[in-house]
Amino acid sequence: EAGVVQSPRYKIIEKKQPVAFWCNPISGHNTLYWYRQNLGQGPELLIRYENEEAVDDSQLPKDRFSAERLKGVDSTLKIQPAELGDSAVYLCASSSRKIAGGNTGELFFGEGSRLTVL
Amino acid sequence: LTKTTQPISMDSYEGQEVNITCSHNNIATNDYITWYQQFPSQGPRFIIQGYKTKVTNEVASLFIPADRKSSTLSLPRVSLSDTAVYYCLVATDWGNTDKLIFGTGTRLQVFP
Predict the structure, then answer these.
(1) H or E stretch covering B3
(2) Chain A: residue whose CA lies nearest to B103
(3) A19: domain CATH number?
(4) pLDDT surpassing 60 at residue B96
(5) What are phi and psi of B58, to 5 degrees?
(6) Cβ contacts of residue B31 below 8 Å, gap of 6+?
(7) Is any Cβ of chain B less than 8 angstroms from the Cβ of A80?
């Protein structure tokens, strides 16, 4: 079974340029997460989707970040324009159902997309 | 919001047992405790999950005391390949907003 697939693995851009990251979750996983991980820190949740609905985007910097999951399968995270502080690894994860409260389960992460903004 | 506290780093030698303790004083009644492992240039990977007492799988054991305010991940006979960052998470549910909060994790270094 294929895992969570992300692309690109690495991206180097100049500040103020746009960038987009793509994620294809595990087949059948309705819940999709985008996390950002700064060097030496744990992942921070940016947005969570249940099917095509963004049910938690409270941590997404909406002035420059956007995300979509149009058909409830793959997803795209966009930054426009990028700033120096956006340099980080962007991780996508999926799960078969919501993980919280009394629901058990695990997140499956992709390998991440490492962004460097110069 | 349930915050977890773990040691920033730990060192061990091959063949030793490693115990990493995580504090989660405000854990809610229905919350489960989950541990993830992360190698450089990879996403975190699920290790083990539990609610109370002891859980064991082929990779690790998880010990949770009766008050559930802490948990201990136990890695038996570590090898060099166990060098990684280990995260303790508590699934927190409030209102319609659910978050899986990753802390800074514990960086385990295993020496020959």
Answers:
(1) none
(2) A42
(3) 2.60.40.10
(4) no
(5) -75, -10
(6) A101, B2, B90, B91, B92, B93
(7) no
Domain assignment of residue B23, yes or no: yes
A25-55 pLDDT, tens digit each: 999 998 899 999 999 999 999 999 989 999 8
Longest dimension (CA), chain B: 48
Q: What is the DSSP letter of B81?
A: G
Please say if the pLDDT value at position A70 is more than 60: yes
A90-118: pLDDT as tens digits: 999 998 866 655 556 788 999 999 999 99
Cβ within 8 Å, pair A109-B45: yes
User: pLDDT at position A1, please?
Assistant: 67
Question: Would the CB atoms of B93 and A100 count as touching at under 8 Å?
Answer: yes
| Contact residues, chain B to chain A, C-beta under 8 Å | 28, 30-32, 34, 36, 41-46, 49, 87, 91-93, 96-105
Interchain contact, A104 vs B32, CB within 8 Å? yes
Which residues of chain A does B101 touch, with a Cβ-Cβ cutoff of 8 Å?
45
Minimal C-alpha gap between A17 and chain B (Å): 24
Domain that holds residue B80: 9-111
Q: Print the domain residue range for A70.
A: 5-117
